[in-house]
Amino acid sequence: MEIDKGLIGGSTVLLLLSLLEESDLYGYEIIRRLEQRSDNTFKFREGTLYPVLHKLENKGYVKSYLSKGDTGKERKYYKITNHGKKQLAEEKEKWERFSLSVNKVIGGGIHAFS
Amino acid sequence: MLSPKSEVFLNEVLSYVKFTFDRNDIRKELEGHISDKIEYYMELGSEPEEAEQLSVQDMGDAREIGIELNKQHNPVLGWIWRITGIIAALLILLFLFVIAMSMGSFFQKDLSKETPKADILYQIDIKEQIRIDDRIIRFTKVIMEESGELSIFYTYHNAGLLGGSWSLGYIGEILDDQGNKYVAMSGQQQGGIITKGMLTIPDFSRDADTLIISYDSYNRKYRIEIPLEAGETDEQN
């Protein structure tokens, strides 16, 4: 299964902040991890990541800095802020409530028709 | 490093970003991403040209990305950001300057503490007070240093209600009993009503046993003689 996914959408903030909670990452790494974690379910339009990252930075959820990683290439890394961590907790809760509700509706339907 | 294909993509993205100051950073970031992806495809066995084409394709729609980036790089906010940055920097400089100035006067306030104790040959406390018109000058202390530097400490204030802010430049000629005249360096610290002052003579004669301060200007006169410990000093040396 492959879902074409633009990143300019609802659940992206949750995905990005949870990845950044684990470690500081630059854009390309974020895409690779998202693909790996989702078992290549998502086929990202990769460029759409950047407006979202910049939006997160404008909102103060992340901070960026330039650094030369192991490869010696200078990259723009993103780091989650305390504000971002709070937001992540909120987004997680929202997501759980949402998926729970969706499952209830679906589950309820299954029960109703079974 | 990147071929025209990537350039076309990047240029199209950036054409939507109106705040030109941010364009360079955005370009670098996207360029980095594309070249990482090219390496990835080449490791999988693609030819460079194919790798680049796939990489650019994977980025998505340049127009969509450009429009969304422009929303995050708003010119009005961008300019406000830049200007507040400049203002903040100026305020910090001003703040540091003020701090530095007040530190400076803080050090000056403790005129008498500038001389480390070890360097003091002897110190004479004096209580000489003179008055010129409404101005009262009190000589408080004379310090002789090992180096031959002599410092005279005094305070002064105005007895009258008016003219409290007049500063005193000249308190008299500095002489000694040997007939030497000295040029003194002076320091002053305004401290409200009473002002502290200090005169320093870099190389005061060690033979002199009396310090004389003599004032004679505008028909006003005074003369103070302060006995020094010259004799003992010579013996010690």
Order of helices and strands of chain B: HHHHHEEEEEEEEEH
DSSP strand tally of chain A: 5
- In total, the number of domains of chain B comes to 2
* Mean pLDDT across every amino acid position of chain B: 80
Strand order of the largest sheet of chain B: 1-2-3-7-6
Q: Indicate the CATH architecture of chain A.
A: Orthogonal Bundle
- End-to-end distance of chain A, in Å? 27 Å
Q: Assign an overall shape of chain A.
A: globular
| Distance between the amino and carboxyl termini of chain B | 80 Å
Order of helices and strands of chain A: EHEHEHEEH
List unreliable stretches of 5+ residues of chain B. Answer: 231-237
Largest interface: A-B, 21 and 22 residues
For the record, the count of structural domains of chain A works out to 1
The main pleated sheet of chain B reads as:
5 strands, antiparallel
Highest-level CATH class of chain A: Mainly Alpha
Helical proportion of chain B, percent range: 40-55%
How many DSSP helices of chain A? 4
Name the CATH homologous superfamily of chain A. Winged helix-like DNA-binding domain superfamily/Winged helix DNA-binding domain
What would you give as the CATH superfamily of the largest domain in chain B?
bacillus anthracis domain
* CATH class designation of the largest domain in chain B: Mainly Beta
